[in-house]
Amino acid sequence: MNVPISIKVNGVERQAEVEPRTLLASLLRETLCLTGTHIGCDTAQCGCCTVLVDGDAVKSCTMLAVQADGCSVTTIEGLAQGEELHPVQKSFHDCHALQCGYCTPGFIMSSVELLEKYRDLDEGRVRELLEGNLCRCTGYNNIVQAVLSLAAERGRT
Amino acid sequence: MYEFEYRRPASVPEAVEMLRDREGAKALAGGMSLLSAMKLRLASPDVLVDLGRIEGMSGIRLEGAEVRIGAMTRHAQVAASAEVGKAIPALADLAGRIGDRQVRNRGTLGGSLANSDPAACYPAAVLGLDARIETDRRSIAAEAFFIDLFETALQSGELITAVRFPVPRSAAYVKFHQPASRFALVGVFVAVTGSGEVRVAVTGAGPVVFRAASIESALAREFSAAAAGAAAVSAQGLNSDMHGDADYRAHLIPVLAARAVAQILERQG
Ligand SMILES: Cc1cc2nc3c(=O)[nH]c(=O)nc-3n(C[C@H](O)[C@H](O)[C@H](O)COP(=O)(O)OP(=O)(O)OC[C@H]3O[C@@H](n4cnc5c(N)ncnc54)[C@H](O)[C@@H]3O)c2cc1C
Ligand code: FES
Ligand code: FES
Q1: CATH code, residues B60-268
Q2: Which atom of ligand 3 is nearest to the CA of A136?
Q3: Is residue A48 lining ligand 2, measured as CB closer than 6 Å?
């Protein structure tokens, strides 16, 4: 039996009728055509599918769309303002923090929350806090650098 | 995953009724373990009863000499809680090291205990601190709660509502984490309770969390890292897998207990 849900996605109220087993990641990618949210492992390991639900970074491959009913979801598509990149996107760009780019949307969404919620960041702490995201190209140094340089700019180091 | 029906109760009694109504019904908390099991078809409930919208099932309160934590409280909330950080810093520290940030934003205390994964962290704190598990129908002592691999004292359809942690004099949790899963290869929780009893709870090493009696009695004689480290722990009945055999796990237990004791003594200055 389908369930009606309503979710605010990147600021826009969206309604859908979903099967309860629909994952949030599938709703975003297949129903709403927001394919910036990637699926890497589909088993809550890699963090590629990270989005923000009411401001919390979560793995959308391991959350049901019905669990997000009534919530506000931000995906990678919701970060830039028109042509202007979000500061985290810009920092990833400046630090060359991507290689193939597959893990990048997840790392960026995860870093957005990290930079909102945590202070006293140093390299070790950032590496620890990014444990939920894996980069198959192993480009961690520049990713950590991108987060740290923005953290320094915001007085969070 | 297979199809299922989705229910969203507004209260604990309503949830219990929904679980009683249908034999194949299961509670859904953070979903970090259950949804993965359903994808693998290791679990295939007909009905999921989502506890996510029940008011009053999450939250942290200091009540006298106890910290009461609602079953739906997420790991991230426990890690960030000023009350827990002050009363039982070892518990906040433990919660902040579970899995990763995204897992801590969804996973809950009740879900972790009900699941009773042999490598889960919270069971070590619950047993180490001699906490009580409150359900919709009774209160269960830690010692009676954890039974075996993925098996607890919970009856079918029984819901954990909260856990009461007595505030200890001091405590520390040291986890040797398995870097791929981030679970505990072995984790040791050492506590000196309010009455001065030393308790040592071990997770990850056996099929279910247990107390290390030899280390407890060594520490009762002399509370030092050296005493904990010198205690012998038998490998009999411990887990062996590709990440470490039973002997290795048995070796880790006193090593980690010694580190936990060192942390406690250091904090006391
Ligand atoms: C990548 C990853 C890394 C992890 N690392 C760790 C780690 O290092 N340490 C650790 O301890 N855990 C770890 N976990 C597990 C995590 O802590 C889970 O959140 C937890 O085990 C299950 O909690 P949940 O709220 O997600 O429960 P769910 O997955 O929703 O439910 C789990 C089980 O508990 C039952 N249940 C849920 N709530 C209740 C309740 N209130 N009363 C009765 N039954 C209930 C459900 O029916 C189900 O059977 C990890 C998980 C992942 C995905
Ligand atoms: S796709 Fe969700 S964690 Fe890997
Ligand atoms: S850039 Fe290729 S997976 Fe991270």
Answers
A1: 3.30.465.10
A2: 3
A3: yes
